[in-house]
Structure formats: C-alpha cells, structure tokens
Amino acid sequence: MNLQYISLLISASILGILFFMKTKKNNFGIRVLTAMIFGVAVGIILKNNALIIEPLGTIYVNLIKMLVIPLVMASLISSITTLDNTEKLKRISFKSLGFLIATTVLATGIGLIVGKVMNLGSGMQFVKDAAFKAKEVPKFSSVIVDMFPINPISDMANAKMIPVIIFSILVAVAINVEGTKQPEAVKPVKDFISSFSKIMFSLTRMIIELTPYGVYGLMVPVAAKYGVASLLPLGKFILAMYIGCLIHIALVHGSLIALIAKVNPIKFFTKISEALVVAFTTRSSYGTLPITIRVLTEKVKVSDRIASFTASLGASIGMNGGGGVYPTLVAIFVARLFNIELTFAHYILLFVTAAISSIGIAGVPGAATISATVVLSSLGLPVEGLAMILGIDVVVDMIRTMTNVTGAAVASILVASTENELDVDAFNKSDVKNELTVA
Ligand code: ASP
Q: Which of 1, 197, 221, 422 supports an S-S bond with 74, CB 3.0-4.6 Å?
C-alpha cells in the first residue's frame, strides 16, 4: 500500500484516539499536548507522506479566523455601549497602548542581554542568498494613515484590525451619543449587537473544542518540513529566541502581573494556556484572537470590554516577541555576522525603532520579518543578513507568536486591574485543575 495511505490511516487512528480521550473526559490540556506529541512524531517519521493531513490544520485555523471580525466588532460595540464615560474610554486606550509598547521595549532589553550573552552570530559565515529580496518597509506616515478606516467592509475583508477597532469604537460612541437623546431609536441595534456577541462567544467555544485535532494537523507539517538536521546550523539563534521569549514571559510578564494586577502569575499563565497553545501552533495572533478574548473573559475574569479592546489592539501593536525580542536578536546576529561593532547610539536607536516598528505589524505568520527589516535598515545593518535566518522562521515564529499573545493578555489584565475591571475574587476562586478544560 502506498505510504500516503498508510500515513492517512495512522492519522485517522490518532484522531480517533484524541476523540476517545475526549469521551473519557480527559483534560483539554492533556489532549492538546498529546496531539502535539503525536503530530511531531508522525511528521518526523513519515516526512512528506504525512502532509496529506495538512488541510486539517488549515481548516481549523480558517475556522478561528472566521470568528475574528464578527466577534471583535460585536463584543467591542456591545461592551463600549455599556460605558457612558468617554474619559474612561480615553484612559483605557492610553493605558492599553502604554502597556503594549512598554512591554515591547522591555522585550527589546531582554533580547539585547540574551543576544550579547550568547554572542549570537559569532563563528558563522555569511552565505549570500541570491533569491533574497528585502521586504519593502512601509513609510511611517502611511502606517499611520492605514490605521484609520476607509471602507469598513474592505477593512473587514482584509482583516485590518486597527481600522476595524476604530470603526467599532466610533459606532459605539455614536450609539451612546444618540442614545442619550433618543434611547428608543438605538435600542434595536444595541439589543441585536449584544445578542449577536453572545452567539459569537458560543460559536468560539464550539470551535475551541476542535483544538486537539487542529493542533495535530498543524504540527505534522512543521515537523515533516523541518527535520532536526535543517534546524541545527542555526540552533543557537533558535535557542536564543526561545530563551529570550521565555525569560521575558517569566520575568517581565510574571512580575508585572504579580506587582500591578496582584494575582498569582502561574495561575494566570495556566488560565491563558489554551490561547498560548493555539498561538504557538497557528503562528498568528490575529487567528488566536477569539481564544485570547475568551480565556481573558471566562477564566482570567477581565471585563468584556477590556478583553476585546486591549487584546485586539495587541494583535497588531506591541508584539513583545515579533516587535521586541526578535528584531533585537536579528540585529545582534547580523552585526556580528558582518563584524560591525554596535555602539551606544545603535542601542538607543534599537529601542526606539523596535517600539515604533512594533506598531501596526499584522498578527499573521512571518510578519516580524518587516519589523526586523525596519530595525536593520535604521541601524544601517545589511538587510540581506536576514536571509540567513528566514529558512528557520517557522520554528522561531511559533515562540514569537506565543510571546506576542502573552503580551496582549498581560496588557489586558494590567489595564483591567488598574480600571477596576478585573474580578480578583473570581480569578482566585476558580481552581487550576478546571482551568485546563474547556469551559
Ligand atoms: N506571527 C506573529 C503573530 O501573529 C507575528 C510575527 O511575530 O511574525 O503574532
């Protein structure tokens, strides 16, 4: 029998096992972990023959992406219309941007330390890649102009998060303004949107149920395409990224949660673990957004409005991994590769450009290549050095996206706690064992 059919049979049996585990009421986290392990094993052993299962992962990601625009719009509009205080809305906006960008600046610092300590790029030879074409860096002015909505339908269709958020806020503010004059006139729209948002949350829950199968379908192709041998030459860079991101999460995120939100960081990370797994495997903060919002509201007990607002912004602003740790490590790697000594002025510029270029990155796979290009060119480093690490980008993107999503979730809990929109008692009450199961 053809190897592809055998691999299909094996995959079908694994999916069967995952389903059986569900019927036996096995913990959600355990099922996802099992799917990951099986996915990596099947990918490594069966290589390209296992790719027949790839569409399963693609369908899963598409299903979550399907939710993003309707969910974010409905939950933002319905939650802001419960807020009749525009001062508060302004405060929430400033705080969200502040926390998202500040944590990215801290991530740049962590990247700098890890990159320097590990002496990234030393002992490596630059190998020119003739096929490499540097990504075109958008002008800063056009990044700003692009943040504002033009045609809401085209913004929705093109998944442009920031214009969609701004449009939703404007609609919600208009509902509030009109509502103070003629409450009856806006009531049907308010009721419809609030009910629609509940339905979208319910749909999110149904799709999250598919996570173990989706994760299996996503892990197989990654493991099949990136054998250990292909990762080895750049092992040090990959290691630096994983170490940098994990230190950032443990140290920076952990202490901000303990100091500002005054809750147990381990409990927090356990509560958002579903979103982290989905981020790691899908490599898209945008695609993970419905799950991020759901874990924030249902498990972390952040209010709907902060969860939908701050987490959505965090899917394209800040990006601790893709806008902070990654471009910094790339800069250190490339500088060393070309024997360019980085000066104090370079470091200052690094912090500033990393913060600025982290605004408006799309939360899609590979997007951080743009922030890395911006940082390299503004530091005057050869952009073609980036080509050396593009071959392993998928593996690096996984931890980057997980860090981006953690950053967005951390910003949300920080804004919520400083705005009295975090239910600390409910956060503490729910027991950790249940956190790993689908609500
Ligand atoms: N894939 C990342 C995300 O969606 C962006 C990046 O770091 O490339 O958050």
A: 197
**One-letter identity of residue 379:** L
Please report where in the chains the tokens 């197989």 appear, as a residue: 220
Shortest-distance atom of ligand 1 to CA 369: 8
Task: Check pocket membership of 367 for ligand 1, CB cut-off 6 A.
Answer: yes
Length of the chain measured in residues: 439
Any ligand 1 atom below 6 A from CB of 204: no
Which atom of ligand 1 lies at the shortest distance from residue 364's CA? 4
Alpha carbon distance 374, 109 (integer Å): 17
Tell me if residue 422 falls in helix, strand or coil.
strand
**32 within domain boundaries:** yes
Q: DSSP class of residue 83?
A: -
Residue 232's domain spans which residues? 3-434
Q: In this structure, is residue 220 part of a structural domain?
A: yes
Judge if the beta carbon of residue 104 lies within 6 A of ligand 1. no
pTM: 0.88
Among the atoms of ligand 1, which is closest to the Cα of residue 365?
A: 1
Q: Give yes or no for residue 323 CB within 6 A of ligand 1.
A: no
The residue to mutate among 390, 404, 405, having the most atoms of ligand 1 within 8 angstroms of its beta carbon, is 404
How many domains are contained in the chain?
1
Residue 224: give its domain's CATH number. 1.10.3860.10
Ligand 1, closest atom to CA 315? 9
Q: Give the pLDDT confidence of 306-358 residue by residue, as tens digits.
A: 999 999 999 888 899 999 999 999 999 999 999 999 999 999 999 998 888 88
CA 136/CA 80 separation, integer angstroms: 37
Residue 160 resides in a domain: yes
Written as six digits, the tokens of 227 are 């054998």
Q: 245-293 pLDDT, tens per residue? A: 999 999 999 999 999 999 999 999 999 999 999 999 999 999 999 999 9
